[in-house]
Amino acid sequence: MHLVYPAVLSALLFCTGLYGVLARRNAILVLMSVELMLNAVNLNLVAFDVWLSKAARETLHSGQALTLFTIAIAAAEIGIGLAIVLAVHRNRGTSDIDRLRDAAEGPGDGSDDSDGSDSAAATAPGAEKAEATA
Amino acid sequence: MTLAAAHPGFLSPTGVEIAFLLVGLATFGAALVTVTTKQLVHAALWLVVTLGGLAVEYLLLTAEFIAWVQVLIYVGSVVVLLLFGLMLTKAPIGRSPDADSGNRWAALVVAVAAAAALVWVVVDAFRTTWIDLDGAAAGSTAVTGASLFQNWVLPFEALSVLLLAALVGAIVLSRKAKADAAAPQVPEARGEQAAEEGAR
Amino acid sequence: MTTTTYAVLVPLLPFLGAVAGLLLGRTAPGFVRPLAVLPTLASLVLTVLVAAGQGGGRAVDAATQLTPTGSVPIELALHIDGFAALVAVLVGVVATCVQLYSTGYLRDDARYPSYAALVSLFTSAMLLVVYSGDLIVLLVGWEVMGICSYFLVGHYWETPQARAASLKAFLVTKLGDVPFLIGLFALAGDAGSFRVTTVLGAVASGHLHHPTLVALLLLAGVAGKSAQFPLHSWLPDAMAGPTPVSALIHAATMVAAGVYFVARLLPVFQASSAAMVVLAVMAAVTMAGSALAALAQDDIKRVLAYSTIGQLGYMTGALAVGDRGAAVFHLLSHGAFKALLFLAAGVVIHAAGTNSLAAMSRMGNLRDRVPDAYWTMTVALLALAAIPPFSGFFSKETVLGAAEHVATGHTGHAPGAAGWIVLVAGLVTALLTAAYAMRLWLLAFRGRGADAPGHGRQPVVMNAVLWVLAVPSLAFGGLAFRVLPDWFDGRSLAPALTTSVLGTGLAVAGGVLAYGAWRHTTALAARAPLGAVAAHPEADAGLVESEAIASHEPAYGDIAYAPDPADPGRLLLGPLHRHAAAGFHLDTVYAALFVRPVTAGASLVRFLDREVVETYVRGAGALPRLLGAAVRRAQTGNVQTYVSALLAGTVVLAVAAVLVATGA
Predict the structure, then answer these.
(1) Structural domain count of chain C
(2) Does a structural domain hold residue B147?
(3) Contacting B residues, span 26-45, partner chain A, CB-CB under 8 Å
(4) Are C98 and C119 in contact (CB under 8 A)?
(5) Does Nucleotide-binding appear among the keywords (chain A) (predicted)?
(6) In terms of residue numbers, what domain contains B112?
(7) Do B162 and B129 belong to one domain?
(8) B60 and B128 assigned to the same domain
(9) Alpha-carbon distance B103 to nearest alpha carbon in chain C (angstroms)
(10) Does the pLDDT at position A86 exceed 90?
């Protein structure tokens, strides 16, 4: 089999996940897109590992080992990520990424920011407590 | 592998390649639907298709163990976890018109540019590289287990520590703090949010 | 102590008095009056001692070099000849009189301490100019006088006239000082030294390479300081200062400095006959023009100011014909009677409550109210008009005699043309001087009408000073013209018959003309009521005067002019009257020639700065502001945007790296 096929598929999947990370509004959908990107990488690792082990250049199977590690870490990541999203949702009342604008330039520059900053201000003590407990 | 003439040409696919291509197309299409659909729960379900397609691709690449692990962990647990997350955050069922943020066009440009660059580089580099899939499977359970427990023991054990840490962290993060219930603003804010979403 | 020690102490004492007065003025007001009067008085005594020590013999020279100053050394040098000794005595006398008079005149003035200190400093600077044997040291005194005159003329700075006048005095004299400074450097460059004696030696041995240039440059400074045409216009305006300051400036310091400077460096000017002719023309125009202007002024002090300009014209005329003895002789006698005229005018203004002659001519009993001022002023006016045997007669006849001497070609040291110019202008001015002196006297003391409002008695010290000064005005000329040649160049100062007869005859004719005109017009005075009187008649003289100056312009429409049909000057001058009152519109000419171009240039520069340069600055600021706005817009807080930009950059970099690596 040509190596190009899995490699190109991996690249396309990766960019699809990239688009999802950049374009999705809901944080959980962003996490799904991250999973897509990780899987694209996994496919790449497996394909190259198969190619290299068949060519007897490398016998450690490092590609497959790393794929397993990636899967494990992805599982851990999805757990932690969901926990964070839940905490944010509990404190802010939303899991929309583009409403979490605490890093924005000072007040008065955003037009639709008023309700978001209001709710942020209203829930600020809660957020602090959540951080304290974390 | 190095001599293009020694292997079948680019336009003379074998049966494995045709299967790989068809499954790859389905996977890619499912992935596209995953990142573009307006129904959040559908996105999770299309993700299942994508991940399953990938498992088939692993099988086609003779990486059996990885394929079953993929099915077990991703399709079995991660997607379920994501569905739970969607429900816990009161994601709306049905079409939500604002599933995509205003960043969509910039994201599209970046993604297309990245895809073009990657595909160009990959095709340019491995145009003639051939994987010989005959012979013993490269990723059977025996082979993978031997490699893992001969060469990768220490990282494997370290990974278990990482998983434990992630477990503890997830519990701490998602546990509802007692003080939260006493804070009056939070339920109100949540109520407003729910009302807004209901209005949408 | 030697004469040199005395001479060093002469400028030093008033200077120390000024410093002490400025330091103690606030904390110890009781010391201010002694500190003002005593150093000046002591320095008067010392000048007399120096004059006695010098005795008209050889010049006293002393010099010390404090520090090396390069190729042209500057030394603290004294050069006391007969001129210096006598002029210093005059400065001492007038300054002492002015200080004494001021203690009465500015009795209640809140700023008296600084005023007295500045007068002391002024005196000190003038004494430095007189005694200095080094041109740079002389320049120091010269410039200190300029700044002191600025402060003293602006003493009543609450009135806009005083502010404008002080600025004008400062700027106009500085306008002359710039070429003066260049001229000094040129002179020293040629002579190799700033020492007066060295310079004169270089001139005598013909080492001066550009005599005309140097002389004309120096003349500009002299014209500014001594109020000669065309830089005289500051002097009439300087009348906005207190009367004692006017007396000091006009009689002994400041304006005398220019004449004295030329007298001291006369050989430099004589080296260039062109400079002598220029000097003669300048003197003639100044004399005749100022006498005409004096005939039309309404403010009593402005009449006296123009008369000062005219008398200074006589002095420069004498210098133009190369007779510095005559010039300094006239300087001395003029210093005495002009100080007296101003101080008496101060008394009159206080008594009348106005400085307007038109208003005084409608007061009945001004003569009886101030008998001391009346008599002394009569003496001084007779001296001014050069009626024998008053001192002005002798000094003026020396000037005219010297001019006649040159005109008839008896000497070779001055061009004959200069002699003729000075002689004719001097005779015409003699006529006019007598006329305006007569007019002043008649209008001030022969007025008819209601009694002047009561102003209480004048302070004794003021009247005493008047009588002290009346003595030299009366007798100095007659007593001194035989003695002075020993002190000066040795040339006879006795009046010549021809010029005496001519001059006196013209003076009498002028007086009679003015009297006749007055008889003709005085009847009109009753029909045209006029006059404005100061609001606080009981206040001290300084306050009354400042109010009179401030009210002249609103009351009569002009600072120099009053629409008075009873003015004999109006009859005598005819259509010239209006132009003469305005000083022949010289200020307007200056405004058109200098002020308006400068203002236009300033507004052009302002336009360029505000509109052109500022536009560039604003444009330069706009780009960063735009960039800042753009960058700020980028800070949306949306993480996805950030990551998009990050990844886009990564893609670009990766592609670039690949391209570079493959050598594409």
Answers:
(1) 2
(2) no
(3) 27-28, 31-32, 34-35, 40, 43-44
(4) yes
(5) no
(6) 4-138
(7) no
(8) yes
(9) 6
(10) no
Pair (B41, B130) in one structural domain = yes
The structural domains of chain A, with segments of one domain joined by +, span 4-100
* Least CB–CB distance from B110: residue in C651, C654, C658: C651
Q: Convert the pLDDT of each residue in B176-187 to its tens digit.
A: 665 554 444 434
Shortest CA distance from B103: residue in chain C: C641
For residue C661, the distance in angstroms to the closest alpha carbon of chain B comes to 12
- For residues C598 and C560, membership in a common domain is answered with no
Q: How far is CA B109 from the centre of its chain?
A: 22
Question: Using the beta-carbon criterion (under 8 Å), do B110 and C641 form an inter-chain contact?
Answer: no
Do B97 and B196 belong to one domain?
no
The answer to whether residues B130 and B156 belong to one domain is no
> Which of B32, B41, B61 to mutate to test binding with chain A, by most A CBs within 10 Å of its CB?
B61
Per-residue confidence (pLDDT) for residue C443, from 0 to 100? 82
Residue A113 has pLDDT above 80, yes or no: no
> What is the span of the domain harbouring residue C486?
282-572
Best to test chain A binding among C638, C643, C647, C655 (most A CBs inside 10 Å): C638
- pLDDT, mean of residues C139-162: 86
pLDDT, position C410: 66
Of these ranges, C24-38, C83-97, C521-535, the one predicted with the greatest mean pLDDT is C83-97
Q: CB distance from A85 to chain C under 8 Å?
A: no
Q: Please state at what angle helix C391-407 crosses helix C300-320, rounded to 10 degrees.
A: 40
Chain C hits for A110, Cβ within 8 Å = 636-637
Looking at the complex, report in whole angstroms how far the Cα of residue A97 sits from the nearest Cα belonging to chain C: 7
Q: Examine the domain organization and report whether C566 and C633 are in the same domain.
A: no
Instruction: Give C182-185's long-range contacts (Cβ < 8 A, gap of 24+).
Output: C182/C217, C183/C213, C183/C214, C183/C215, C183/C216, C183/C217, C183/C218, C183/C220, C183/C221, C184/C135, C184/C136, C184/C139, C184/C218
Helix, strand, or coil (residue C343)? helix
Give the model confidence (pLDDT) of C311-335 as tens digits: 888 888 888 888 888 888 888 888 8
Q: Residues A93-106: what's their mean pLDDT?
A: 76
> Token pair for residue C456?
């209480």
CA distance B76 to chain A (A): 11
C547 and C604 assigned to the same domain = no
Among the partner residues A18, A21, A104, nearest to C637 by beta-carbon distance: A104
Q: What DSSP string describes chain B?
A: ---GGGS--TTS--HHHHHHHHHHHHHHHHHHHHHH-SBHHHHHHHHHHHHHHHHHHHHHTT-HHHHHHIIIIIIIIIHHHHHHHHHHTTPPSSB-TTSB-TTHHHHHHHHHHHHHHHHHHHHHHHTT-B----SS-TT-HHHHHHHHHHHSHHHHHHHHHHHHHHHHHHHHHHSPPHHHHH-SHHHHHHHHHHHHHHH-
- Within-domain flag for B144: no
Please check whether residue C15 lies inside any domain of the structure.
Answer: no
Same domain membership, residue C512 and residue C598:
no
pLDDT confidence of residue A114 = 39
Note whether B88 and B124 are same-domain residues.
Answer: yes
Instruction: Check if the beta carbon of residue C95 is closer than 8 Å to that of residue C119.
Output: yes
Q: What is the pLDDT of residues C617-627, one digit of tens each?
A: 888 889 899 98
Query: Could you tell me if B132 and B174 lie in one domain?
Result: no
In a domain, C423, yes or no: yes
Q: CATH number for A4-100: choose from 3.30.70.1660, 1.10.287.3510, 1.20.120.1760, 1.20.1050.10.
A: 1.10.287.3510
Chain B partners of C654 at a C-beta cutoff of 8 Å? 117
* pTM tops 0.95: no
Per residue in C202-240, pLDDT (tens digit) is 888 877 777 888 888 888 888 888 888 778 888 888 888
pLDDT in tens, C636-652: 777 888 888 899 999 99
Query: Does one domain contain both B55 and B115?
Result: yes
Domain endpoint, select from C572, C602, C618: C572
Q: Do A54 and B131 touch (CB under 8 A)?
A: yes
The C-alpha of B126 sits at a distance from chain A's nearest C-alpha, in angstroms, of 6
- pLDDT over 80 (residue C68): no
Measured between CA atoms, the residue of chain A closest to residue C629 is A109
Residue B150 near chain C (CB below 8 Å): no
Q: Residues B86-122: pLDDT tens digits? A: 888 887 777 887 778 778 888 999 999 999 999 998 9
Give percent of chain C above pLDDT 70: 91
Which of A14, A15, A22, A111 should one mutate to test binding to chain C, selecting the residue with the greatest count of C CBs within 10 A? A22
Quote the number of domains for chain B: 2
A89 touches chain C (CB under 8 A): no
What confidence score (pLDDT) does residue C601 get?
Answer: 92
- C657 touching chain B per CB within 8 A: no
